[in-house]
Structures are given as structure tokens and as C-alpha cells.
Amino acid sequence: MTEKLDQLFVALKHWAVGWFPESWQPFVSILLSIVPILAVFPALFAITTVIERKGLGRIQNRLGPNRVGPYGFLQFAADGIKTLIKEDVVPRAADKVVHFLAPIALVVPVLLAYAVLPYGRNMVPVDLDAGLLFFFAVGAGTELSLFMAGWSSHNKYSLLGAMRAIAQMISYELPLVLSGLAVVMIAGTLSLPRIVEAQNVYTATIAHWHVFTPWGLAGFILFFISSLAEANRSPFDMPEAESEIIAGYFVEYSGFKFALFFLGEYLGMFAVAGLGITLFLGGWTAPFSWLAWIPSWAWFMAKLVTVVAVFIWIRGTVPRLRADQLMNFAWKFMLPMALLNIVVAGLWHFTGREGWNIIVRWLLCGGILVVPYILLGRAFESKVSKREYRYAN
Questions:
Q1: CA-CA distances (angstroms) from residue 128 to 120, 183, 210?
Q2: DSSP code at position 288
Q3: What's the distance, CA 378 to chain centroid?
Q4: Residues with Cβ within 8 Å of residue 329, at least 6 apart in sequence
Q5: Mean per-residue pLDDT over the chain, rounded
Q6: Which helix (H) or strand (E) holds 159?
Q7: CA–CA distance from 82 to each of 48, 241, 249, 250, 260 (Å)?
Q8: Nearest 5 degrees, angle CA 330-CA 333-CA 338?
Q9: Crossing angle of helices 255-280/214-230, nearest 10°?
Q10: Both ends of the chain: CA-CA distance in Å?
Q11: Buried b (16+ CB within 10 A) or exposed e, 19-47
């Protein structure tokens, strides 16, 4: 019974494909892999927008959406209808073709990234040997869409906002990729399903998740912080901050095009959260062997919802960084720590081969990470000027 529940969606897909002629089955199989992604994650986007607004309202001692539908939970439908019927204003001097293609160029690469994520046991749409490389490759296309939006609008503020957003995303892409590289070194593969299977091992009922190692814990923290910047989430949401260069690269967008940018941002957040779960939190595996009876797809979605909840929590509690603080943090703290973490991952691997005691390995690898963390943190903190409040007499 447990196995049947775990493979429920796989069995349903095989059953549905079997109804079609053999020559049609490959195309139907592809279609049945695409449709759930196009249905589940946009629906999760709609629900998340309402929950986020209500959660932020509680954090800020207000109610949030409470008018449309039961307890305001149909607010996303009202917002969607509004963006569909709102006038599409395009600047007269804008490059209309590029202006139209920019939001599409943001959403399409994000949707492609979902193709290689393993959502459960035997539930990966496309099992590529270099799935992690594919994810990072298509994710890099988002920078192009931001430049297209800023340049095609024929607005100097839009262009400045786009260039600053691109600088931020490139800066934090480096620690994002390097933190994932440590996982590749340990797992010995670029295949995301193989990376999950490498963590599906238990010792004394505890799973071998990468986050339970010193290099994995450091890598997950670096990956998580970088993913906040990549998804333009607080405290790294300067590309679209209301008080910063008049809303940034999409200031000249309205209606459904603006909604596509909004959709692409949230879908990108879900995708990078799913990748972090796959690399460091065991993907669809259970944390303890006695919980393995819960379906693998349920574990993946539970972890995804938890990570997204932390994203929302951070947005409501952490203030926005200045531009200089944001860039200095990426190049003077995140990047050195990510490079050091690769060395620690290699040390962890080779000390394990020689049969070192687990406590000694933890102290050695953890010490190598903690000392530079303190030194780099103090050096970075000394260069950050404290805010001074001045009042008129």
C-alpha cells in the first residue's frame, strides 16, 4: 500500500499513456510531464501571493487581504483579472518587439528548469546526466530578459535598474554555483536524481543528507542566501524596490506583461528552492528511516513549502541592504566562503576514506570554516557604516 501511494502519479501516467496508440505514446508522455508543472507551480504561485501578503500583514500588525473570497483567499483571482483587463501601455520610443519578448524570455527559462528537478521517486520529467548543469545554464538566461526589459523601454532609469539587477544576479550566481559544486564533488555526478539517491542512506535511522555535514551546512547557508539574491527577495530586492530607481527594470511595464515578470520571479523562487532541497536536504527522502512510509512526493512538497515560508519570514523581518553593502557582501564574504567550502568538502571526503573519527572530522572541517567566517565577518562589518539618526532642533 505504501509503495502504491508513493508511485501513485507514476502509475496514473503509465495508465493514461497506455490508452493511446504506440506511435503517440512518447508525445503523450511528454505532455503528461509538462501539464502538471504548468498547473501545480502557477497554482502554488497564486496561493503563495495571498499567504505571503497575509503573513506579512500579521508581522506588521495588520490584516492583509480580507475582502475577496473567504478570508481574502481569492485575492489572487482578483489580481489576475485586473492584470488581464488593464491597459497595456508601451512607450512610444520603445523597441516594441523586444519590449514584448522580455517577460516571455524570463518565464520560459524558469519553466525549463523544472524539467530536471526530481519531485519524488521515479518522478523526474527529464533525467539528464548533467541535470545540474542544465539548471544553471537555463537559469542564466534570466539576466538577458532583465537587460531586454531595461533597454527596450527607452528609459534611462529602467536601463540603470536593469544593469544594477544584472550586476547583483551575476555576483550572487558565483557563490550559488560554487556551493552546488561541493555537492557534485561528493556525489560524483551532475545528475539530480543520483544526487538524491546518494543521500537516501540511513545510519542509526538518520539520513545522510548533505546538510548534516559541516561543508553541507555551510554550503546550504551560502546557497540559501544566494538564492534570495537570485530571486530578488528581501533583503536583496533592490532591483524592484519602490524607492530605488522608480521600480527598476520593469517600470515601463503594465497589465499582463507586468504580471509575467511577477510570475517569473515566484516561479524562479520555487525552482531554486527545489534545487536547494535536492542538493542539501535529501530531495524527496525522509530525514529518518521510520518516516520513509510517507510518499516521496509529499516530502518534497513539504520541504518546498517550508523553505518558501522561510523566504516570506525573512522578507517581513530583515531590512533591505544598500547597493554597496549588497555587492561587497557578495564579493568579499560569500565568494571567499564558497571557495573555501569546496576545499573543506574535499578534506571531508578524503578523511572519510582514511577512517577518521566522525567527531574529529567535524571539528577539523568545522574549524576551517568557522575561523575564516569570523575574520571575514569582522572585516566586512568594520567597513559597514552604522546608520545615524539626526533630528532638527
A1: 16, 17, 21
A2: B
A3: 28
A4: 321, 380
A5: 89
A6: helix 156-187
A7: 18, 22, 22, 18, 13
A8: 90
A9: 180
A10: 75
A11: eeeeeeeeebbeebbeeebeeebbebbbe
Cell of 327: 555587492
Under 8 Å between Cβ of 75 and 53:
yes
What is the C-alpha to C-alpha distance for residues 181 and 280, in angstroms, rounded to an integer? Answer: 12
**pLDDT single digits (tens) 62-109:** 888 988 888 888 999 999 999 889 888 898 988 999 999 999 999 999
Q: What is the pLDDT of residue 385?
A: 62
For the record, the C-alpha cell of 135 comes out as: 539548471
The predicted structure's pLDDT at residue 244:
62
Prior bond of 235 cis (ω within 30°):
yes
Number of DSSP helices (H) and strands (E) in the chain, helices first: 15, 2
Beta-carbon-side half-sphere exposure of residue 133 (alpha carbons within 13 Å): 7
E strands present in 161-316:
202-203, 206-207
* CA–CA dist 375, 93 (Å, integer): 51
